[in-house]
């Protein structure tokens, strides 16, 4: 299936590794030009080099910086001739007990996981609508649907973003101009973020990290953790020309772990 992404420009945040890199690889494989961002210069440049080698027909621009800051966002946006596809993503706040968090911890979580995506959306969707094509995919978390008790900061900030997107996606001036906004809710994917979450959960449960990880795997009907490549493939479809009638949705990718019908 031709996803209709050849020659389009995609801005992919936090793309040097993990789920962000999986999305960048999938979009690059479909012929989209890429602007990738991350805070770590060395890892980002290595990822950019790997993408150029894997997909020689596309252009890849790497912008090192903190996407949660105005300066980081401005630099990333300036590097992209036009943003046809926007993948928002930022490292989640640390796990812990809400009793230990101060106001500054909450503000940092909101800045990274709610306000930064909103600012990027604000900077791009009107131009998308003028061109008659746009795709926004926010990488949030399965915790939006099934909150994790040690991820309170993430639960709160990402749920706020979810509510905002639900309203914006249904504006006729966007949906009626082939601009879609959706959220991908990853469950347990084999990433550095998962390792940190498992470490925190193991301490709380009084188990070794390996034992706790195995218990987590056994709680997933798929009996495994997800991969960045399969996450990226779903993201690429959401960005495709075929997905123009899909907007304002939260797609849960968790190997069947969520037990509900809806």
Automatic annotation (TrEMBL):
Top-level taxon in the UniProt lineage: Bacteria
One Pfam short name: adh_short_C2
PANTHER family: 3-OXOACYL-(ACYL-CARRIER-PROTEIN) REDUCTASE (PTHR42879), NADPH-DEPENDENT REDUCTASE BACG (PTHR42879:SF6)
Protein known as: SDR family oxidoreductase
Organism expressing this protein natively: Roseateles paludis
Taxon lineage: Bacteria, Pseudomonadati, Pseudomonadota, Betaproteobacteria, Burkholderiales
SUPFAM superfamilies, per database record: NAD(P)-binding Rossmann-fold domains
Record-stated family: Belongs to the short-chain dehydrogenases/reductases (SDR) family.
